[in-house]
Amino acid sequence: MTLGWLARFLASRLLVLIPLLLVISFGVFSLLQLAPSTPERILLGGRPSTPEVLAAIRERYHLDDPFLVQYGRWLVGVVQLDFGTSIRAGEPVLPMIIRRLDITVFLGLFGFVIALVVGLLVGMVAALRRGSPLDRALVALSVVGVSAPAFASGILLLYLFGVVLDWFPVFGAGDGMLDRLWHLTLPAVALALSAMALIVKVTRAALIEELERDYVAFARARGLSFRRVLFGYALRNALVSVVTASGLVLIYMLTGAVLVEVTFTLPGVGSLLVEAVQGLDIPLVQGLVIVIAVFIVVVHLIIDILYRLIDPRIRFGGAHG
Amino acid sequence: MSGSAFHLLDVSDLSIDVVLPGGRTRSIVSGLNLHVDLGETVGIVGESGSGKSLTARSLLRLLPRGVRATGRAEFAGTDVLDLPERHVARYRGSRLALLFQDPFTILNPVLRCGPQIEEGLRDEGLSRRQKRKESVRRLAEVGLPEHIADRYPFQLSGGMRQRVALAAALAGNPELLIADEPSTALDVTTQAEILRLLKSLQEARGMGLILITHDLRVAFSACDRIYVLYAGGLMEVGGARDLEDHPLHPYTLGLLLSEPPVDRRLSALVAIPGAVPPADEVSGVCRFSPRCRWVRDVCRAGPPRLVPRGPGRATACVRIDEIDVEMVALRRAVVAPAAVKEPSEAAALVRVSDVAKVFDKGTPRANPALKGVSLTIRDGESIGLVGESGSGKTTLARCLLGLEQPDSGELRIAGIDASRYDRLRTGDLQRLRRAVQVVFQDPYSSLNPAHRVGFALEEALRMAGRRDDGVTVASLLDQVGLPAAYAKRRPVALSGGERQRVAIARALAVGPRILVCDEPVSSLDVSVQAQVLNLFGALRTELGLSYLFITHDLAVVRQVVDRVYVLYRGEIVEQGPVDRVLDAPEHEYTKRLIASVPSGEPVVASPSVASEAEAVS
Question: Which helix (H) or strand (E) holds A33?
Answer without folding.
Answer: helix A4-34
